[in-house]
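Example record for the data management plan.
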Amino acid sequence: AALVSAVANAGDFERAKALFDEAVARTSGPVDEQLLQAFLSACARAGEPEHAEHAYAQHTSTTGRRTGFLLSAVMNALARAGSLEPAERLHEQAVAAGASPTVGLLNALLLACRTTGRAERALDLVESARAKHAIRPDNHTLKLLLDVCVPASLLDRALAVCSRAAEQGLQFDALTVNSLIRACLRNGRLDCAFRYYDAARARGAARPNLRMLSQLSRRCFDASVAAGTEGDKSLWMERGLQLYEEANALIAERAPLRYPERRLRGQDQSRRSAIRGGADGRKMPQLAECAEL
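Corresponding structural encoding:
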């Protein structure tokens, strides 16, 4: 299993498949489930859903079992390739055979919807999972739903799902907050974007990333220019400056993590002197040498 994963990670799917086939040929009984999971993951990475579906079908016909993590792995392989109908068929067969529907399997179906741009189907799947199986979305569900609904101009319906999830107790993580803000900004809804931003800050959640802070501040300055009253102009300008300050604070926090201070002695100290201007007359170091520092 480890060798199949390593070869697949190196981008050689044909070799990974050959190793898997050799292992299956040497096995008299059912294939090891860890090995099968590694091969299904390799299929997902390489965009080979047919091989994944075939291997999974052989395993289930031999064992009569539809193991949850294997079902999730084959559905993810299908989803990445945009094979929504086969993924739905497998899911329905598994549930009919007694498998428990999970939010992870729902997310695999939503990934297929996002790959194929099927926003309406994604919304139907979320509603069906809620109504039939009492499955509540998690943060990954919401991000997938926003990704597929925004290009289809179905933001309001996606936001309704997000609101219901929050009412049921789901705490939006930083990635979901970023997705919500980005979706609102893309639709020109600055007030809506700030509602999610302010709510996240009020509960002490991690601040949005630098890119999102930059987009928010830029939209604030644009709104200030377009404002019809001096009050609105001042309001948006103040918010933009606050975001600018927050972005600078975030940069200051992360700088030591990205560029840790090191005590350079001997040869390293000489290299640093050369980088600062070559005052000792020596040739400036090459880029690779700078990277070492």
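Summary line stored alongside the record: The two ends are 38 Å apart (CA to CA).
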